[in-house]
Specification:
Layout lengths: L18 E4 L2 E4 L3 H14 L3 E6 L1 H9 L1 H8 L3 E4 L2 H9 L10 H15 L2 E6 L4 H12 L4 E6 L6 H11 L3 E5 L4 H13 L3 E4 L3 H5 L8 H5 L3 H8 L1 H35 L1
Parallel strand pairs: 3-4, 3-8, 5-6, 5-7, 7-8
Antiparallel strand pairs: 1-2
Helix pairs in contact: 1-5, 2-3, 2-12, 4-12, 11-12
């Protein structure tokens, strides 16, 4: 299922970008620019589409849990967010990926939304955070239409669905944490009818100025995950444990594949 790496600008945005299979999840070979173009094409096509920014911990969860795997495999676009994805691709002998950080994709989509007139809805994070994120986004991208916001600490989905449907956004950014946000989008995608919905994890906290991203040098070195673990070791220990686990799973998958090839070779 692996395909050739995707040179910038080669594949028209109205066609599905090439993808490689990593532990049962198809991850698309796109750059940040190509991801934005693809989302624009998905919006133009009407949807409802789900966009996933996948990291190593999510690949491990998908390998363990068929429900998570099934949701990720129904997404229209799965972008490689996180160095774990790059490492897994390397171990599995897939073409290399370029990282597309979820927070950067969300920012670029808001910039594009301001230019193209797409309405954006922000759902998730603690009360007040989505409002502050909306304010910051409107300042940064004049003309941006934030069609609505709602915090992420609700137990009844129904009123939230009514509010989102009434706002008729083109893009819904959902910050409920993985896997709740991916499950929530998958469950309500059809009823919401929003062209593109994307899980964004802690992005609203960053946009609202409540949480800082890692310093630029750590981002460049692919160490953003280490920064997060260092800041919140108790909350992030699962992420820390996921990386070695991911490497073991990828190695096992590769060995299984090679053993399969050997057996087929003997049979000839
Ligand atoms: N969150 C929420 N409702 C919940 C649990 C979490 O809105 O019931 C929010 C939380 O406030 C934060 C985001 O979801 O803004 C999760 O951020 P995190 O960085 O933990 O995302 P992850 O990287 O774990 O997906």
């Amino acid at each position: 299922m692996a395909s050739a790496a995707h040179p910038p600008g080669r594949v028209p945005a109205d066609r599905e970008p090439p993808a490689s299979e990593l532990l049962g999840v198809r991850v698309h070979h796109v750059t940040l620019d190509q991801a934005v173009e693809r989302v624009a094409a998905l919006i133009a096509s009407g949807g409802p589409h789900q966009v996933v920014t996948v990291n190593g911990a999510m690949l491990v969860a998908a390998a363990r849990d068929p429900a998570v795997r099934s949701i990720l495999s129904q997404a229209s676009l799965v972008v490689p967010d996180g160095v774990g994805v790059l490492v897994a691709a390397r171990i599995l002998g897939r073409p290399p990926f370029v990282r597309v950080p979820g927070v950067e994709l969300a920012e670029r989509l808001c910039a594009e939304a301001a230019a193209a007139g797409w309405r954006v809805f922000l759902l998730g994070a603690a009360p007040g955070v989505a409002d502050d994120a909306a304010e910051a986004l409107r300042r940064r991208y004049p003309g941006l239409q934030v069609a609505g916001v709602h915090h992420g600490y609700f137990s009844d989905d129904a009123p939230v669905l009514v509010q989102i449907r009434a706002a008729r956004p083109h893009v819904l950014l959902v910050a409920l944490g993985f896997p709740r946000q991916e499950m929530w989008i998958a469950r309500h995608r059809a009823a919401l009818g929003v062209p593109v919905s994307m899980g964004v994890g802690g992005t609203l906290d960053v946009l609202a100025g409540r949480v800082r991203r890692a310093p630029a040098w750590m981002q460049r070195a692919g160490l953003e995950w280490a920064y997060r673990i260092a800041r919140e070791p108790r909350r992030r220990w699962r992420t820390a444990a996921a990386l070695p686990h991911l490497m073991v799973l990828a190695l096992k998958a590769r060995l299984r594949r090679e053993r399969g090839k050997d057996l087929n070779g003997q049979g000839c």
